[in-house]
Amino acid sequence: MARETQSILVVEDEQAIASFVAAYLRKDGFDVRMTASGREALAIVGSEPPSLVVLDLMLPDLDGMEVCRRIREASSLPVLMLTARDDDLDKIAGLEMGADDYLTKPFNPRELVARVRAILRRGGARTRPDAGVLRHGDIVLDAGRRECRVGDREIRLAPKEFDLLWELLDHHGFVLTRDQLLERVWGYTFAGDTRTVDVHVRQLRRKLGEDAPIVTVWGIGYKAAPARDAAG
Ligand code: CA
Fold first, then answer.
1. Would you say residue 230 has pLDDT above 50?
2. In Å, how far from its chain's centre is CA 194?
3. How many structural domains is the chain composed of?
4. Residues 86, 22: one domain?
């Protein structure tokens, strides 16, 4: 039975990188379309949406973050962001704008293909916990609504931030390594860039503020601290 060909839109103004990425994706059976322009990317996404977008952060017209934000306003189309090594980690707030993952240049094209496959396998922005409510002290995660509340405050979390917090709270008291978190939350079955985990933890701490129950276990990973009792 023929599998429907999945299409990837590569948005990158560096011709050499774009061609290189396209060649690897095509070799892996994807249909690839390329553009160097953020505006054109939005037009293509609007008229003929691909299965996934590989999006460079630095583009000559609209930057990748803005393109990602606009894609997210309209759809849950998966986005893999490309960043340069010297981009500040905080600039990778593209993740917060809803990118599913990011890869730092220079990267191994096989890793890019593997990540594209992983994102598509888990259904893009759709994520694993899709029902149930998890309570941890003042924090309430509602998987059906994808909502996070701390007391009566609603905290807006990006999809992967939500999943990461869920995974940590669901195993509170246990240390999870960065690799375990990459596998469980991002679906990687190979060694990925563990900075992805650190960036998301940083965002969670910023959003949850002093209520963030995430403890860094030096040299190993992260764990959720036990819930504080309302009385304590
Ligand atoms: Ca660029």
1. no
2. 12
3. 2
4. yes
